[in-house]
Amino acid sequence: MSQQKTSRIPEFYKKTLEERLNIVAEYAGLTQEEVALLKNFGNLDPKIADSMIENVIGAMSYPFAVAVNFLINGKDYLVPMVIEEASVVAAASNAARVMRRDGGIKSIATQPVMIGQIQVLGVKDPWHKRMIILEHKDEIIQKANEVDPVLVKFGGGAKDVEARVVEGPRGPMIIVHLLVDVRDAMGANAVNTMAEKVAPMIERLTGGRVLLRIISNLADRRLVRSWVKVYKEDIGGEEVVDAIVDAWAFAAADPYRAATHNKGIMNGVIAVALATAQDHRAIEAGAHAYAARTGRYVPLSTWEKDQDGNLVGTLEMPMAVGIIGGATKVHPIAKVALKILGVKTATELAEVMGAVGLAQNFAALRALATEGIQKGHMRLHARNLAIMAGATGDLIDKVVEIMVSENKISFAYAQELVNKLSKEGKA
Ligand SMILES: CC(C)(COP(=O)([O-])OP(=O)([O-])OC[C@H]1O[C@@H](n2cnc3c(N)ncnc32)[C@H](O)[C@@H]1OP(=O)([O-])[O-])[C@@H](O)C(=O)NCCC(=O)NCCSC(=O)C[C@@](C)(O)CC(=O)[O-]
Ligand SMILES: NC(=O)C1=CN([C@@H]2O[C@H](COP(=O)(O)OP(=O)(O)OC[C@H]3O[C@@H](n4cnc5c(N)ncnc54)[C@H](OP(=O)(O)O)[C@@H]3O)[C@@H](O)[C@H]2O)C=CC1
Question: Sorted alphabetically, which SUPFAM superfamilies does this protein's record hold (predicted)?
Answer without folding.
Answer: NAD-binding domain of HMG-CoA reductase, Substrate-binding domain of HMG-CoA reductase
